[in-house]
Amino acid sequence: MIPKNHPRYESLILREKIKEAHKKGYLTDSGMIAHGRGEAFDYLIGEKTMPPANEAIKVAVATLIQAKNSVISVNGNSTELDIDEFIELAKNTDSKIELNLFYRNKKRVEIISKLYKDHGYENLLGIDDKKIRYIDNIDSPRATASEEGIYKSDVVLVSLEDGDRAEVLVDSGKKIIAIDLNPLSRTAKMANITIVDNIVRTIPLMIEYAKKLNSKDESQLKELISDFSNAKNLNESLKYMELSKLSKS
Ligand code: PTJ
């Protein structure tokens, strides 16, 4: 039992959740390592949403609302940390949710599908192996997508994403929104819009913005999106973190 007045209470609670999901078999071993990496970056940014992340969040939400076929891609870690929030965000931005596991196996797909059902979401995509297609015919587990979801999408929101897969998605011409605490990761650099923040803070903020931006017309949304430069935003995050000296680009 972690005492509520512990200075690292929130962070320790998240760690417990990750451990539990791993014990239950739907969060992979590497997912625990990925979480630890995230924790380190979160520590460096003071476990708060930085101003450049807030800006990227607004642009990301406008992009999701404006999309013709937007998809929120989820995996073991993101499901454990934010399942209800992803469902709510999907509802508020008219997006689909697709399961895309880097370490895919039948047991994980079954447990996660059931979790979404138990949380009231019946339409999780990407769970039927027979319906999986390969983006741009790239015969790789990194390029898998469901026909109705990511395969046909124009905008995909990814979090805790591996760089190879982000590259496949970007190369296929889709607009990629990434949430990644590491502004130096390949995914962060490759995406069109990167939110350098913890998904546990980002998704609730995205829901708030979606509620506000839903009433804007297309030209107002376009204006919001057009001024955004991902490279510039990442640089601002790095400066904020005082890690700019580590950046090679
Ligand atoms: O569930 P699966 O099989 O799809 O596996 C997913 C993992 C996480 C194992 C896989 O995608 C992976 O290997 O991810 P990486 O390459 O370790 O990248 C994870 C990135 O997410 C790292 O840059 C972390 O800093 C970042 N990260 C970790 N936790 C969070 C995070 N970013 C935002 N919010 C977090 N809570």
UniProtKB/TrEMBL annotation:
Pfam families with a match to the protein in the record: PPS_PS
Listed GO MF terms: acid-amino acid ligase activity; ATP binding
Top enzyme category: ligase
Keyword Nucleotide-binding: yes
Classification via InterPro entries: PPS/PS, PPS/PS_sf
Pathway note: Cofactor biosynthesis; coenzyme A biosynthesis
Positions annotated to bind ATP: 15, 37, 180-182, 186-187, 198-199
Keywords: ATP-binding, Coenzyme A biosynthesis, Ligase, Nucleotide-binding
Catalytic activity: (R)-4-phosphopantoate + beta-alanine + ATP = (R)-4'-phosphopantothenate + AMP + diphosphate + H(+)
Keyword Nucleotide-binding applies: yes
GO biological process entries: coenzyme A biosynthetic process
Family to which the UniProt record says this protein belongs: Belongs to the archaeal phosphopantothenate synthetase family.
Physiological role: Catalyzes the condensation of (R)-4-phosphopantoate and beta-alanine to 4'-phosphopantothenate in the CoA biosynthesis pathway.
PANTHER family associated with the record: 4-PHOSPHOPANTOATE--BETA-ALANINE LIGASE (PTHR40695)
Quaternary structure annotation from Swiss-Prot or TrEMBL: Homodimer.
Name of the protein this chain belongs to: 4-phosphopantoate--beta-alanine ligase
